Structure formats: structure tokens, C-alpha cells
């Protein structure tokens, strides 16, 4: 889940039953039977809605929602901005205390936990999920049932300096992982370059880079029965990731917040991140007097290995309605309105968030940006981690093992053995 950028998306029609990540006899979040979503009457909807949204979404949403309330005078909407760093605990506490909002922006990796707490209302049949990126739909599913609508999406790609790559004799980013590493090594050899590629050496969120490399090798970290960190494909992925640090291609102790500056200066000409980095590096370059920097870099898909398909991590946030709402029809009416393609395009203009509705990408605002269009293509095969209620706790242990790999040279086998032991101890949380 990304903690800075955002977007909106949605539509109207029929709910889909999806595969999701089945857990513990097919159920991975609160309750045994598949919940049935009740119909919504949007024509007579009324009431006052409390809406929580994090970061810039919380700041910008009131401006967009004014159009909704103008068109629905019987519905009043109060938006409360929530800081990202306290959001998770605020939600958990509100669920426990029975003081949840009516509608909220919910992090994709929180879905399993909140459904396990029996807090979210299943997505009604008036919301058609068919037009969204498949990976985004997966983030709304727990035990095969949708409990939200994708609001905004993002995924990760490899950023690289085309000018430095050319000096290194690379005119096209390799699709294979071994060749990709060789490219990074060649770029490190160029004048002014300190490290070939910036990779996160463990710490919170490093899984968002490691897992795409694993998925692109055909690996998975979960199956129908639970977590599967200690497979040969996962072990080889972690060894591959660790080799960048072992071979001196990546810095195991990078300074905080230096990625953009080092990329612009050329000190570190490659990194893996999301679409929000485009504006950050270009704005920084302009401050340094380089108005043409946009022509000096490009983005490329996550490299593959062992016959895998390039698959990045799909992040973002969902829009969910809480079961405790006293204005359910009004709540889903708001979500349905936010689902319209034209609303998504307006939201993109306000926030630069990427639409989760695929048809919104046909708008010239997005379609004419070549780099952005590549992110749109990557989103078609992007994947979601398992929706176990325990995922947040388990993946923290995984990140800790990756830090040992990057900084202490721990082997992939030992790291994944430890991660598996922790996952088995914690369980799925179902």
C-alpha cells in the first residue's frame, strides 16, 4: 500500500464472485458462509455520511464531493482527513468501539483484517467490478466475496536513466532478471555513478519490491492452506535480491529520502517505485535547472525469470462501507457516484491519482503520457498479496528477514525458513 499518492474509480452493474485467496477451508475472513449483499435503493437515498480518507485524499475529497451533494441534496457528506501513520489503529479502535464511519478509504492490505472483525458491508450488486483492473478487484475480495470498490491504484516499475544506460551500452531494458542485474552492474561502472540500482534493504515495505520479482519467477507466498514462503522459487528470488547487495551493485545502507536526488544527479540511475515518482524527479530536476529531464529517463516492467509473467504489486486503496452505518443506501450511492468514469477523470485532475477503472485510461489526459501508459499496461498483470487477516503481521517478519539478507548476507534459504516459521506461528488469522 502506498502512503502518499492516490486515485478514484468505480462503476455500476453487478457484483462479481472472484477467486481471491482462499484460506482455511475456503474462508479467510470472519464467518463461514458467503455473505449476501443486500440491494441498494439509490433513488430514495438520504442521510448524513461520515467519510474518512487519508493523506491528500482526505484534503481533496471535499472539493469533489460538493458536486455529489449538489446532485443529491438529501445526502450530507462530512469528510474527515486521517493521518496515514495513525489510520490503521484509528480504524481498529473504531471497529472495537462501534464508532466507525459510514464510508472510508481502506488500505488494500487491511481488507482481510477488517472483514475478519466483521466490520465491512459486502459490495452490492449495483456496483459492477468487471471494468476494473483484475488485481484491483482482488484487493476487495476476502473468501471470494467483495467488500469494497477499488478507489485508486498504483503499481511499481523500474525507473532508469536512458542517457546513462546508453553510455553503458544498453539501449533496451532486458526482460530477464539475470540480464537486468547485468545492466545495473554496467551502469554502476559509468562516471559519476555510485550504485547501479537503489533497492530497499529490508525495513517496512520492502516486500513490495521483493514480491514482484518473486511473482515474475512464478512464485507465490500463499496457497489455499496458508503461507508458502519456503518454496524453491521464493528462496531463489531472495537470493537474487540479496545478490545486488552482496555484489556491491546496491547500497545496503542508503540515506533516507535520497532516491529522487540521486536519480536526478545520476549517482544512482535505477530504482523501483510507483508512478508518483515521475512528478517528484521531474520537479526536482527543474529546481536544479534541468527542464528537459523528462527525456533522460524511462520506465520498464519488472523483469522475469523461469518462465514467469511480469507481475508487479498493485497498491492503492479501496472505498468501503461499514456495516454499522445507519445510512447504507446513501453510503453506497456515494460510492457508486465515485465509480463513474467522468468522476475518475476529474479526480485524477485534482490529485494525479491513477484510475482503477480501465475505461478511464482512455481519456487523453492519461493516454497521451507515454510513461503513464506503461504503468497502465503493467496494471493489467499486477497482483495482490493474500488477504489473510494476519498479513500485516506476517509480512513485517518477512521484511525483517529481507533486511538480514541485504545487510548481513543471510541466505535465501535461511531467511525464508525463518519467515515460514513466523508465518506458521502467527497463522492466517482466519
TrEMBL record:
It comes from the Bacteria. Gene3D superfamilies: Periplasmic binding protein-like II. One of its GO terms (biological process) is maltose transport. GO terms for molecular function: maltose binding. Residues 1-17 form the signal peptide. InterPro entries: SBP. GO terms for cellular component: ATP-binding cassette (ABC) transporter complex, substrate-binding subunit-containing. Keywords: Signal, Transport. The keyword Signal applies. Belongs to the bacterial solute-binding protein 1 family. This is ABC transporter substrate-binding protein. It comes from Tessaracoccus aquimaris.
